[in-house]
Amino acid sequence: MATERQRAVLELLQRPGNAHCADCGAPGPDWASYTLGVFICLSCSGIHRNIPQVSKVKSVRLDAWEEAQVEFMAAHGNDAARATYESQVPSFYYRPTPSDCHLLREQWIRAKYERQEFTDLDRQEPYSAGYREGFLWKRGRDNGQFLSRKFVLTEREGALKYFNRNDAKEPKAVMKVEHLNATFQPAKIGHPHGLQVTYLKDNSTRNIFVYHEDGKETVDWFNALRAARFHYLQVAFPGASDADLVPKLTRNYLKEGYMEKTGPKQTEGFRKRWFTMDDRRLMYFKDPLDAFARGEVFIGSRESGYTVLDRLPATTQGHHWPHGITIVTPERRFLLACETEAEQRAWLEAFRKVVDRPMLPQEYAVEAHFKHKP
């Protein structure tokens, strides 16, 4: 009988919707919540274990199943659970993928099953109201210390502001939602709830690094920023569908890491710098947590005269790392060196993905106004 029940559970995985994790979409889920009736991956099962009052999990292949549990799974399944627990997910709300950080997946799972935020619109007020204010720990630009700062996000003004003092009348910075991005960076910031917010200041990228001790607060801020971006884009592009706008709300970086670079004359020595590939902007920093980039390079498309080579010119000297990359733009060449061949391959893949993609009309405007700091 136990073998028959095991086989019955495995057969349920073949049903439509059950072949991927109900929470992050990872293929081949090997675990299940037998109180929610969903099939989930190993990573998400660990989060379910932390909410035992809502979800109890078993291995699909290794644990013994009772007849009533098998019947419950058969009566429910991933598609049915989505229809219940995700019936009112806002278009802008970020749905995590298998590669996203633990915090995003945890808060998505808790929002769905524990708080049931997507079955009642009133529970979505923290990120759907169009206005949000509160305190976040923000890293100081010069001293690197995290200090509590008041932040205010207002859709009406299309801006995120922060204040250095609680009683300050004027904000220290005003970040226009039009040019805002947010991405989770727990490893870089050194906190599991670390969020990197970027905006344009004088056409150059400015970074701020924040976190909140409460993971829910950090994710609510993230989704409130996405909601504000969504509202801005709906006004800016009135004919666009939600499917067109949602990918533009926030973006993760294509690649980050250390490389060596030399200056525009290519006669000085190579220096180790932290590089960030943000869509078509390649930025380099002395330190990963610097507020401003030392320089930015626009990388256009092959049709516009941009190419990437997997080597340095034969006459190049002064690099300590052996695996070279040359970025050719219409104006000049950028010489880079990677420590390992694996890093070189990863960077080349990221660069070529951008170069092989035709430029959009608005990207030509960015290229025209782009400033490179040598």
Please provide a written account of the structure.
The chain has 374 residues and is α+β, with helices and mostly antiparallel strands. The protein folds into three domains: 2-85, Annexin V, domain 1; 122-248, Pleckstrin-homology domain (PH domain)/Phosphotyrosine-binding domain (PTB) (PH-domain like); 255-369, PH-domain like (Roll). Helices cover 29% and strands 25% of the residues. It has eleven helices and 17 strands. It has helices spanning 2-12, 42-49, 67-75, 78-85, 102-114, 125-128, 186-189, 215-236, 242-245, 341-355, 361-369, and strands at 31-33, 38-40, 57-59, 131-139, 146-154, 159-163, 173-176, 181-184, 195-201, 204-211, 255-261, 271-278, 281-285, 295-298, 307-309, 323-328, 333-338. The strands form three sheets. Strands 7-6-5-4-10-9-8 form a seven-stranded antiparallel beta sheet. Strand 16 (323-328) and strand 17 (333-338) form a beta hairpin.
Helical content (DSSP H or I, runs of 4+): 25-40%
Class computed from helices, strands and strand pairing: alpha+beta
On the 0-100 scale, what is the average pLDDT? Answer: 93
What would you report as the Rg, rounded to the nearest angstrom?
24 Å
Shape: globular
For the sheet with most strands, the description reads: 7 strands, antiparallel
Q: What's the order of the H and E elements?
A: HEEHEHHHHEEEEEHEEHHEEEEEEEHH
- Contiguous helical run count: 11
**Low-pLDDT segments, ≥5 res:** none
Q: What's the CATH architecture name of the largest domain?
A: Roll
- DSSP strand content: 25-35%
CATH superfamily of the largest domain: Pleckstrin-homology domain (PH domain)/Phosphotyrosine-binding domain (PTB)
End-to-end separation in angstroms reads 72 Å
CATH topology of the largest domain: PH-domain like
Number of spatially distinct domains = 3
Subcellular location: Cytoplasm
Protein name: Arf-GAP with dual PH domain-containing protein 1 isoform X2
Domain Arf-GAP: 7-126
Organism: Phyllostomus discolor (pale spear-nosed bat)
